[in-house]
From TrEMBL, chain B:
The lineage of its organism: Bacteria, Bacillati, Saganbacteria. Keywords: 2Fe-2S, FAD, Flavoprotein, Iron, Iron-sulfur, Metal-binding. GO terms for molecular function: 2 iron, 2 sulfur cluster binding; flavin adenine dinucleotide binding; metal ion binding; oxidoreductase activity. This is Oxidoreductase. It comes from candidate division WOR-1 bacterium RIFCSPLOWO2_02_FULL_46_20. [2Fe-2S] cluster binds at residues 239, 244, 247, 255.
From TrEMBL, chain C:
Coiled coil: none annotated. Gene3D superfamilies: NADH:ubiquinone oxidoreductase-like, 20kDa subunit. PANTHER family: COENZYME F420-REDUCING HYDROGENASE, GAMMA SUBUNIT, HYDROGENASE SMALL SUBUNIT. Keywords: Oxidoreductase. InterPro entries: Hydrogenase_assoc-protein, NADH_UbQ_OxRdtase-like_20kDa, NiFe_Hase_small_N_sf. Residues 14-150 form the NADH:ubiquinone oxidoreductase-like 20kDa subunit domain. SUPFAM superfamilies: HydA/Nqo6-like (SSF56770). GO terms for molecular function: iron-sulfur cluster binding; oxidoreductase activity. This is Cytochrome B. The keyword Ion transport does not apply. It comes from candidate division WOR-1 bacterium RIFCSPLOWO2_02_FULL_46_20. The lineage of its organism: Bacteria, Bacillati, Saganbacteria.
UniProtKB/TrEMBL annotation, chain D:
It comes from the Bacteria. This is Ni/Fe hydrogenase subunit beta. InterPro entries: 4Fe4S_Fe-S-bd, 4Fe4S_Fe_S_CS, Helical_ferredxn. Residues 227-258, 305-336 form the 4Fe-4S ferredoxin-type domain. It comes from candidate division WOR-1 bacterium RIFCSPLOWO2_02_FULL_46_20. Keywords: Iron, Iron-sulfur, Metal-binding. PROSITE patterns: 4FE4S_FER_1, 4FE4S_FER_2.
């Protein structure tokens, strides 16, 4: 291989939520720099939470990220309820699981179709696909809208859900609402089948790097999303309360970015991690689809995170339908509706404490941690988002990938790296505090 | 249902558009096959589908056949869109609406017109009607005021009125520019100078809301009876049918009962001016 | 007819308002039939170097770099739309202005605080001229479409200046004050079809205050319901803190 | 006058009968003592023991949003007027709301007639329902003589305990009686029971809710234009518009064009508007004729108690109390009137007591 110089500087990584830059510097065939920089404007959410009531936290933290607003909502609620020792009802838990599924479905579809598919179909964005692959685009928009419409019925909207709050829901679905959701979700099935069909024809780049995969795990038969311990493919299993140990933020000498590690150099969270740890708990239809596209645990090709997302879509769709059907059978108890208000109308007793929420959102485990006083006012808040946990892993992937593809053109290298980052579905707008920014001299 | 919806519009064809000042344009509009048949002081609802409707006074005299004129100041949505139209384009017309100036009552009497700013637009309809039927009216005085000479409308027509021996015309601007040779000051400053026989004079006043109070004070000083002072009240209007409530003051709907009222009537309604 | 060249840019925000676009479903294709989206970082790799007809800006201005950037964008576009609450009124980012800048930086970033230059949060119109405003956290799609149509027709489209209560009543909701809960509906601009109240929550004021709000009256109301006044102050500055810097007429 | 009887347990059959031919709407409980007229399929869903609904039945006569025309400008300014209406049976309308509908009828039948309103009105069957006692402390139906029926319905039901007695007022009501085969003719004893009930009501609604004679109200308002009461309301009102939106006799609206994305087709519709809204009386040039909230409130009160007297010879306040219930600033219509009365020294603690006008509306 010739000793060549490569300078990749992708400013404003497109088609990811939020802003990131890739900087790669290869001198004479030797990788000198390889970094993913976050240039998002810092938004100081954790600071803004201080002095606010835990009953407002969900409303505020939902605004950290519009893409996984439901996920932030649920993690925030979990942390708040954990802090004051509130135990949600069975019905509430079912509805929250449903909400999480809808979020997962919605986000994955957006990612698969609008952000990744253009790469695999060799175009710059979904816009040219309107002409070349009109049915695909229509299907994508239809599916996205359906997910959104189901969320509208359940919580008012998908971006910044309205009725899901600490304690439960301010508005519970009526009989008709359950039927409407079922109707919408069942209508999604043919499009989902077509999506699997499409995925089978796509060619994902071949690349492999073994790493530690981290996700929620549990002892029951449910694919854990809302509740569970934190486990890894390297055999770790810990309570979510130990999230600081689990994420283990540290500073690396070559960059000012804080990175996360657990048992080895880096770890990964997200759909592929969940698949690798819990594939046997997927819905049978999802398992069948995994077989059809040849995805098996433990899969160590990060590009295949997209494939794992697809499998999860099927699981989430089927499980959503199952949840709604059981709710229809048991009937909704409307007396459980929560009357909102800063003190939630004194319906929910408050005490001092520290609480952790750990929820599987589309991109991986999201942790919220609040310390609250005896009035339920937040003294300290901490949010660790999945993308923050993945950054270190992305860099390690890039470091392995770049030398393997040095024989390609600069454009091809750039694209391969962009695609790699995009495969993680990074959500950089959640720039809570997970990374420091390094302003390199260019 | 074959009863006609009161919201149905008639199609009006724009015959010509003339830029009057930087803010106002004059539109000559024909309703194919019919005359508008309005009385001076009445207004029409002009509509552009997709944009909305706005009440606009008919500025031409009913004596003008075949078409009518509107003068439109560009202030917002509909008026802005109208300003983009050209000859040959269509607009929707409903109306004419409202009670115009009581021409029959004015006949045989002396008239004092007081117009402020855009007020000249509806007044012009009556003035030209009076001039066209000059022998039916007594002495005619016209007072006109506007903020600055650039805002003065109908320059040529005004010059024509000025020339006439059977009409006394006077105008003033709040703020002069170097070319201005005439009066400077508020319109109220012109009123004391008019000689009139208060018994047989009808004052017809149209202008911006703030003008009324002060002009009327001066007219009362001249002993013009309250019921001989006529004013036009332009309120927010939507339907023109006396229903939507926007133009209601007291018990009256400006669109149906007005826009022209005697001061006697207006005084009795709280909050009118 | 030449389709207008449209682009989307974001500053400090959650990008949820941009995501709302994707929620239009197939209607989006009709929209894309009427406009030509030339730059939209979140979903497109394409970039545009020329002039824009209209730029949708999401997010508030929070850094010195952003101030420069928005000024450059303004210079490149005929029309500028403040898109979403962060852009329109400062939104949740404005809560930062409740604190001393130094304090909040330190509390979040500790010793690394200096890496994070930050300025007082500003709504877009507090930095450059804005032609259309679409408030909402997130934006309400029917309103987005309405503004888009107004833009295409070359018409102005002010944000409604009546209260959310108006829509709330049209939807026949039970008023939250009857539940003993403080709601910002009476002083918040309508246009969202009382979205939150329809779903059992209160109005948080995400669309900005009406032009002539009776804030004193609103506080008196709280007293009548034995609700704490801090409560509404607290809520009012959740989205509307930046508005304090506008001199209202 | 014809009276018919309906067995209590046949109420459901009546609803089912009506529902076969049209949409049936009736008051349905929403929780927290709130009710709404809602479409029902059977009698169980409805509630007859209710306080005035959040929105009055006007939403069926002039819906919140109503299309007036559709258009297509590809060939010029072409519009098609639209008159939307559907057959509806309004079930269980209290006397105050019947009065509200009568007010609207007067406004919209006045020339130029509003065809959209009239077409809807003609498609609506009204079945009234008598309140045998006060619904709550906000009501002031006695003051405006709406606590007993004054027409405006097809059928009017009174609850006699074990059965309903129905007054038949129109041929449409007659038809329901004939075709449903659910009714029997009322006997003398039933009419006597009705009379006893009304007598009892006369005792309950003995005096006006506030100390002024009906006939004196216009005079009160003639004196009160400059009252300090309006200044007080100015401070308290937040201009949310709730009071007018829930009012059965408020009918102001805005007309709005809504183009489709092609910008050439679309619709023109009207939507409820309120004199309490900031922009309601604003005109080009920036002048706002009712800039102060107090002036807007005054306008509202005058539109209920003073202005319509000359034009329609009746109050437009129906006494339903909705504005007071809906106001979070707790601006209470009865309290406002009392303040005005006190200010003018017009208190008459026995107002209403001697009057026998309960049955026939007063004339001015
Ligand atoms: C009887 C009458 C006669 C009029 N005659 C003329 C005339 O001859 N020439 C002329 O230029 N203007 C006239 N006007 C004023 C004209 O109606 C308004 O300027 C016009 O309605 C504004 O419409 P728009 O869509 O352009 O403005 P918008 O974009 O709707 O609003 C701009 C401003 O105009 C105000 N406005 C909106 N609708 C009305 C309305 N229906 N009536 C009054 N103000 C309104 C708004 O409150 C706002 O302040 C007259 C008004 C009335 C009531
Ligand atoms: S719930 Fe809120 S928005 Fe609705 S009427 Fe009450 S105060 Fe207004
Ligand atoms: S109800 Fe209030 S908080 Fe909710 S979307 Fe509307 S304006 Fe925003
Ligand atoms: S309901 Fe009360 S606060 Fe609202 S506009 Fe009416 S009087 Fe004012």
């Amino acid at each position: 291989m010739s000793k060549r110089n490569v300078m990749v500087n992708v400013e404003y990584l497109t088609r990811v939520e939020g802003h990131g830059n890739i900087v790669v510097n290869v001198k004479e065939g030797k990788l000198e720099t390889c970094q993913l920089q976050i240039v998002e404007a810092p938004r100081f959410f954790e600071g803004m939470l201080q002095g606010r009531s835990i009953f407002e936290a969900q409303h505020i933290t939902s605004r950290i990220c519009g893409i996984c607003a439901c996920g932030h909502t649920l993690a925030s609620i979990q942390a708040a309820e954990d802090a004051i020792g509130f135990i949600p009802s069975e019905q509430t838990i079912k509805l929250r699981k449903l909400l999480l599924h809808l979020e997962n479905l919605d986000s994955h579809i957006l990612h698969i179709y609008l952000l990744v598919a253009p790469d695999l179909l060799g175009v710059k964005s979904f816009v040219p696909l309107i002409n070349s692959h009109n049915t695909v685009v229509r299907r994508a928009l239809r599916m996205k809208k359906t997910c959104n419409d189901v969320c509208d019925v359940l919580v008012g909207r998908h971006v910044h859900p309205i009725s899901s709050i600490v304690g439960g829901f301010t508005k519970l679905p009526t009989e008709k609402a359950l039927d409407d959701m079922l109707h919408l979700l069942n209508g999604l099935k043919p499009d989902m089948d077509a999506t699997v069909g499409l995925a089978a024809t796509l060619k994902f780049p071949a690349f492999a790097r073994d790493t530690e995969y981290v996700a929620l795990v549990s002892d029951n038969n449910e694919y854990p999303m809302l509740m569970g311990d934190v486990g890894s493919t390297d055999g770790i299993r810990k309570n979510k309360k130990e999230y600081k140990v689990l994420t283990n933020e540290f500073v690396v000498p070559h960059s000012s970015a804080k990175h996360c590690k657990l048992s080895r150099d880096s770890f990964a969270v997200g759909a592929l991690a969940r698949f690798n740890l819990n594939a046997d708990k997927l819905h049978p239809k999802a398992k069948a689809a995994a077989q059809a596209i040849g995805l098996k645990p433990k899969c160590i090709n990060p590009y295949l995170n997209t494939a794992a997302q697809l499998i999860e879509c099927i699981h989430s769709l089927e499980d959503s339908i199952a949840i709604i059907e059981t709710l229809k059978q048991t009937g909704i108890n409307h007396d459980e509706a929560i009357v909102v208000g800063l003190n939630e109308n004194k319906m929910i007793p408050v005490k001092a404490g520290s609480g952790v929420g750990a929820v599987e959102v589309p991109r991986g485990i999201l942790y919220h941690n609040y310390e609250v006083d005896d009035k339920g006012i937040i003294a300290k808040a901490n949010c660790i988002i999945p993308t923050g946990q993945n950054i270190n892993n992305m860099e390690h992937d890039m470091k392995k990938l770049v030398p393997e593809i040095l024989n390609k053109t600069d454009e091809e290298i750039t694209l391969a790296l962009e695609m790699l980052i995009r495969a993680y579905d990074p959500c950089l707008s959640c720039s809570a505090h997970f990374l420091d920014v390094k302003f390199v001299n260019r | 249902m074959n009863t006609k919806s009161p919201y149905q519009i008639k199609i009006g064809k724009i015959l010509s558009v003339k830029q009057m000042t930087s803010m106002e344009k004059m539109f000559e509009i024909a309703l194919p096959g019919e005359d508008l048949s309005h009385a001076p002081g009445q207004f029409v609802e002009v509509s552009l589908l997709g944009i909305g409707e706005a009440p606009l006074s008919v500025s031409s005299s009913p004596t003008k056949q075949g078409s009518f004129e509107l003068v439109v100041r560009k202030v917002g949505k509909l008026t802005g869109a109208l300003h983009k139209l050209k000859a040959g384009d269509e607009v929707g017309i409903r109306g004419p609406f409202g009670q115009g100036f009581p021409v029959r009552i004015l006949e045989g009497n002396d008239l004092l017109f007081v117009a402020g700013g855009l007020g000249i637009v509806p007044l012009r309809s009556l003035i030209n009607f009076v001039i066209g039927n000059r022998k039916n009216f007594g002495k005619v005085d016209i007072l006109l005021g506007c903020r600055n000479p650039k805002e003065m409308l109908f320059h040529e027509e005004l010059a024509g009125w000025k020339e006439r021996l059977d009409v006394n015309f006077n105008c003033t601007v709040d703020k002069a520019d170097p070319d201005w040779k005439g009066n400077v000051g508020l319109i109220t400053s012109l009123i004391p100078g008019v000689t009139l026989d208060s018994e047989r004079t009808f004052a017809v006043v149209v202008g911006p809301p703030i003008m009324y109070k002060f002009v009327i004070m001066k007219l009362l000083d001249k002993n013009i009876p309250e019921r001989q002072i006529l004013i036009s009240l332009e309120r927010h209007m939507k339907c023109g049918l006396g229903k939507c409530g926007h133009c209601q003051i007291g018990n009256t709907y400006c669109c149906q009962d007005g826009p022209v009222f005697t001061y006697e009537k207006v005084k009795a309604i709280g909050g009118a001016i | 007819m030449n389709k207008p060249k449209v682009s989307f840019f974001d500053f400090a925000c959650c990008e949820g308002c941009q995501l709302q676009i994707a929620n239009m479903g197939e209607l989006l294709l009709d929209v894309l039939g009427a406009i030509d989206v030339v730059e939209f970082r979140e979903v497109m790799s394409e970039k545009w170097v020329g002039e824009f007809d209209v730029v949708f800006v999401e997010g508030s201005i929070t850094t010195p770099q952003a101030i420069e950037h928005i000024k450059r964008l303004r210079a490149r576009t005929k029309t500028l739309v403040a898109y979403g609450s962060c852009a329109a009124i400062g939104g949740v980012n404005g809560m930062k202005n409740n604190y001393k800048l130094e304090d909040i930086r330190k509390s979040v970033y500790g010793k690394d605080a200096n890496f994070f230059p930050t300025v007082e949060t500003k709504a877009i119109h507090q930095v450059v001229k804005v032609d259309y405003v679409i408030p909402g956290c997130p934006v309400y799609l029917p309103e987005v479409v309405a503004v888009l149509k107004a833009f295409l027709a070359g018409l102005p489209r002010p944000v409604p200046d009546n209260a959310v209560c108006v829509e709330c009543k049209l939807n026949e909701n039970i008023c939250l004050y009857e539940r003993g809960v403080a709601c910002l509906g009476p002083i918040t601009r309508a246009g969202c079809n009382s979205w939150c109240i329809n779903h059992g929550n209160i109005c948080y004021g995400c669309r900005g205050l009406v032009s002539n709000p009776n804030t004193k009256g609103a506080k008196d109301i709280l007293e009548k319901y034995s609700l704490s006044v801090d409560l509404i102050a607290n809520k009012m500055n959740m989205y509307n803190k930046c508005g304090e810097n506008d001199n209202r007429e | 006058m014809q009276y018919n009887l309906l067995n209590k347990n046949q109420l459901n059959d009546l609803i089912s009968f009506l529902a076969r031919e049209q949409k049936v709407v009736a008051p349905v409980a929403q929780g927290l003592n709130n009710y709404a007229f809602t479409e029902i399929k059977n009698g169980i869903q409805a509630t007859l023991n209710y306080i005035p609904t959040t929105l009055p039945p006007k939403k069926y006569f002039m819906p919140q949003r109503e299309t007036l025309a559709t258009y297509d400008t590809t060939q010029g300014q072409n519009m098609d007027p639209v008159v939307e209406h559907e057959k509806v049976a309004l079930f269980g309308v209290h006397t105050c709301d019947l009065a509200g509908i009568q007010c609207l009828n007067m406004v919209f039948s006045e020339k130029p007639k509003d065809q959209n309103y009239l077409a809807r009105k003609n498609a609506i069957t009204i079945i009234g329902y008598e309140c045998n006692a006060y619904c709550d402390r906000f009501a002031s139906c006695r003051l405006v003589h709406n606590h007993t029926p004054n027409g405006g319905y097809d059928l009017f039901m009174t609850n006699l305990g074990d059965k309903f007695i129905l007054h038949v007022n129109t041929p449409a009501g007659e038809k329901i009686i004939e075709r449903s085969h659910l009714f029997s003719l009322a006997a003398k004893a039933d009419l006597a029971a009705l009379e006893r009930l009304r007598q009892k009501k006369r005792e309950i609604f003995e005096k006006n809710e506030i100390p002024i004679e009906h006939e004196k109200i216009p005079e009160l308002f003639d004196k009160s234009y400059q009252s300090k009461v309006w200044a007080d309301l100015d401070k308290r009102c937040v201009a949310c518009g709730n009071c007018t939106n829930v009012c059965p006799s408020c009918y102001c609206f805005d007309v709005i064009d809504e183009p489709n994305l092609d910008l050439t087709t679309g619709r023109r519709y009207r939507q409820w508007d309120s004199c309490q809204n900031e922009t309601f009386a604003k005109v080009a040039g920036g002048e706002n004729f009712r800039k102060e909230r107090g002036a807007r409130q005054r306008h509202r009160y005058y539109r209920k108690f003073r202005f319509p007297i000359e034009k329609f010879s009746r109050f437009f306040c129906t006494g339903c109390g909705r504005c007071s219930r809906a106001c979070m600033a707790k601006i209470d219509l009865k309290e406002t009137l009392v303040s005005l009365i006190k200010e003018q020294g017009m208190e008459n603690p026995n107002a209403g007591r001697q009057s026998t006008i309960a049955e026939k509306p007063a004339t001015f």
